[in-house]
Amino acid sequence: MKYACQYAIVRFMPYVETEEFANVGVVLACPKTGFFDFKLLPRVRRITAFFEELDASVYRTAREALRAELLRIKELFGRTAGTITLGTRLFDELVRPRESMIRFADVRVILTESPTDELVRVYEHVVGRAFATKVYQEQILERHIQTMLRAADLSTLFKPRKIGNEAYHAMFPFVRMGGDDLPVQAIKPLHLAQEDAAAIFDHGWEWLGKIKRLHSEGLLPNQVMLAVNEPPADDKLLTRAYEDVIAELNHAPNTSVASYDDAKAILKFVGR
N or C: which end of the chain has fewer CB atoms below 10 A? Predict the structure, then answer.
């Protein structure tokens, strides 16, 4: 059986003047069953990365005050015994517009068989950004580099190509072919601005392995550039993983590394 649930995204807006906000949680209620629960962003890193000048304790204090309020609402919901009117009033009062750092987006309604599972799904999408896989992130980097090459009137020289043979190959989004119809240059955007150190190592080593394999097969272009993004500089664990990976990639055959937004380095690489 499916139940009609209401949910709202929790937003953290420390500066009313700019109206900038970060999604930091989700609240979801099913008044018919008396269900109410929430999920809040546990990490402060994303907040301080977005609001660089903000003291992390400001978010922590606001989050814990909200958590206390949501736990109180959850207890009250349990007492409604599925009374739709009371549950709806509780939820409406919680999410009403107010002038504070913690606000709620417009309420949305969804039908679901499992309110608990739906809460997790919505949270992972709007807060955890489950859609933003490394493939998705690298497509963003690719578009940035494509714009850079187009501005330099070089976009027609670089095309997506599979480099290798039937035994082993790898896909590069920007490949320049030589007069003998062999690849001479390749650019590969690499998403290393991840929120987990192990993910940085894994993705970096994945491409280090690809490059070494292509080189050992005699298939690697003479010039390869890895255009990377990097994690927040204030996170020591992520920075250490990033720097270790970059050091290894810089020693890979025929390979150099540059920031994806370093136009000077990338255009120098392509000969401009």
Answer: N
